[in-house]
Amino acid sequence: MSAHPTSAELPVATGVIAGAPIHEGKVRGTTVVSDDHVRTVCFAMDAGTELAEHKAAHRISITVVAGRMRFTVHGEDHEMVAGDVVNLPRMVEHAVLAEEPTHFVLTMHIGA
Questions:
Q1: pLDDT tens digit sequence for 9-33
Q2: What is the full DSSP assignment across 2-56?
Q3: Residue 86 domain flag
Q4: Closest to 105 in 3D by CA, of 12, 17, 15
């Protein structure tokens, strides 16, 4: 028996953006992968919508997939576009403002 999972056992997600359409004036999160170690959510944000300042209980990684957003951490704004990545330790206050329709992928590293 192999110590590694087979390809059928691996969580491969396709069509993530198509499955998370942007709705006018809304922020929506769609869970893509969830297990004991990681939770991955695709966020779809319309222009002008925001996630107010908050803290995550787990270490997080955010990757912008499409659009443009302002990511605020420690009171400092960072302009982020497709391909940009941010990693934060747990319990760091941060906020997100979509400056145009935006998709980003959030990965929570549970227990890390």
A1: 677 788 888 889 999 999 999 999 8
A2: -SS--GGGS----STTTTS---TT-EEEEEEEESSSEEEEEEEE-TT-EEEEE--
A3: yes
A4: 17
Residue 103 per-residue DSSP state:
E
Angle CA(86)–CA(92)–CA(96) in degrees, nearest 5?
Answer: 55
How many whole angstroms separate alpha carbon 25 and alpha carbon 27?
A: 7
Question: What average pLDDT does range 66-84 have in this prediction?
Answer: 98
Residue 8 falls within a domain, yes or no?
no
Residues in the chain: 112
CATH code of residue 65: 2.60.120.10
DSSP annotation of 93 reads: -
If pLDDT is split at 50, 70 and 90, which confidence band does 111 have? confident
| Count of the separate structural domains present in the chain | 1
Per-residue pLDDT at 2 exceeds 90: no
Half-sphere exposure (CA, 13 Å, Cβ side) for 15? 2
